[in-house]
Amino acid sequence: MAPEIREVKTRKDLKRFIFLPAKINAGFDCWVPPMYRDEFIFFNPKKNKCFSYSDTILLLAFRDNKPVGRIMGLINQRYNEIHNEDHARFEFFDCLEDEEVAHALIHQVEEWAREREMTKIVGPLGFSDKDPQGFLIEGFEHRAILETIWNQDYMNRLITAEGYRKKVDLNDYLIEIPDEIPELYRRVSRMVLKKTESRVVEFTTKKELKPYIIPVLRVMNECYSNIYGFVPLTDQEMVEYAKRYLPVLDPHFLKVTENREGVSGFVISMPDLSEGLQKASGKLFPFGIFKILSCMKRSRHLTLLLGAIKPKYQGLGLDALMAVKLLETAKQRNMQTIESHLILETNHKMIGEVLKAGGKIHKRFRIYEKEL
User: Fold this and answer.
1) Strand partners, 265
2) Which residues fall within 8 angstroms of residue 349, CB to CB, at 6 or more apart?
3) Residue 255 lies inside a defined structural domain of this protein
4) Is the Cβ–Cβ distance between 359 and 171 less than 8 Å?
5) 236 lies in which domain range?
6) Is residue 351 a part of any domain in this protein?
7) Minimal CB count within 10 Å: which of 70, 197, 278, 289?
8) Do you find a cis peptide bond into 124, omega within 30 degrees of 0?
9) Cα(45)–Cα(295) distance, rounded to whole angstroms?
10) CA–CA dist 296, 36 (Å, integer)
11) Residue 185: what pLDDT?
């Protein structure tokens, strides 16, 4: 029998939608559950302001009254207006290895998008590039990190069978932390300190960090405007973003550069919490948070989350300044590797910096597209 497709309308169906990937990927050590508390916040239009400027639909596929697939369709009206596009997106596309189920889900999202006069659909891509994006196409043997997708390879076969082709790839690099910080970095950082009247701000407590969160995210807004999929955060979204990640951020791994004009650059990283999320089964309470924090303390793997330098200060060596401080902290905490997070294959400047630091491709993700 053909699968039955139902729109998510009830709390019960939303729970099915959120917890379905755990059933589909059960037994795969590289799949990592999300923070389920955050998932329920994410899918709540009253708490996630992205719904206020987006059209969305959540669908579940059933066989024998059991959920076997899910997908979200969305149209980010704000992004479309900024970029003069009429594109829809799909996100949170998970299903069993079943062509009928995959076809039924993606076809219904395509029809939903056509009804709204969209001319193209792309994905996996959420409200912005800060949401998980792309299907994993290389590096299936490596465990997922925060806010990234881990999917079984058949998802790529299923989506291409529906006529989707590559839109863009994103690369995730692994960098070995050197025993000694390169003297070139130290020399450049000393020169930068002298010539730019900049300083690096370091943190030991979250209380010290709080006043810098909004200025840092404003720098991100300014610097990420040309990155595919990025939508500038409003002040309220910045506050919500900070609340979401502050509980698990280690302030030692956030470095900020500032001068008389204020914050000029930043880098945010954190010890990998993937193992902790697995042990906690994605649940922070009552005891999950302690499992996550314990694993983060033992982790020897650092994950880069965000980083940027204001355009007017780029090319002055502020990146080397922050890199030296980050590497010093990493060495003090016995870190061995740094994972870059996702970098667009077209971001040649950032890729050049990563390669210069000895980075090698660890994983590769692909965003697909299809004309409607």
Assistant:
1) 257, 309
2) none
3) yes
4) no
5) 178-335
6) no
7) 197
8) yes
9) 32
10) 18
11) 75
Peptide bond preceding 34 in cis form (omega within 30 of 0): no
Query: Do 279 and 248 belong to one domain?
Result: yes
Write out the H or E segment, with its range, that includes residue 364: strand 360-371
Per DSSP, 43 falls in state T
Residues 167 and 185 in one domain: no
Q: Give the model's pLDDT for residue 213.
A: 87
Element (H or E) spanning 193, and its range?
helix 183-196
Quickly tell me which residue has 């053909």 as its tokens.
2
| Tokens 């990420």 found at | 224
CATH of the domain at 198: 3.40.630
Which residues have C-beta within 8 Å of that of residue 372, sequence separation ≥ 6?
88, 110, 113, 114, 118, 119, 120, 121
Regarding whether 216 and 325 lie in a shared domain, the answer is: yes
What was the pLDDT predicted at 39?
A: 95
Cβ atoms of 52 and 99 within 8 Å: the answer is: no
Write down the pLDDT at residue 320.
83
Q: Which residues of the chain have pLDDT under 50?
A: none
In the prediction, which pLDDT does 42 show? 93
Do 188 and 245 lie in a common domain?
yes
Predicted local confidence at residue 98, as pLDDT: 96
Letter string b/e over residues 206-240, b meaning 16 or more CB atoms within 10 A of that residue's CB: eeebeebbbbbbbbbbebbeebbbbbbbeeebbeb
Strand partners, 7: 59
Whose CA is closest to 105, among 151, 155, 61? 61
Residues 6+ apart with CB under 8 A from 79: 85, 128, 229, 231
Residues 6 or more apart whose Cβ sits within 8 Å of residue 97: 152, 154, 158
Shared-domain flag, residues 162 and 280: no
- Confidence (pLDDT) at 31: 98
Burial group, residue 195, by CB count within 10 angstroms (0-12, 13-18, 19+): exposed
pTM above 0.85, yes or no: yes
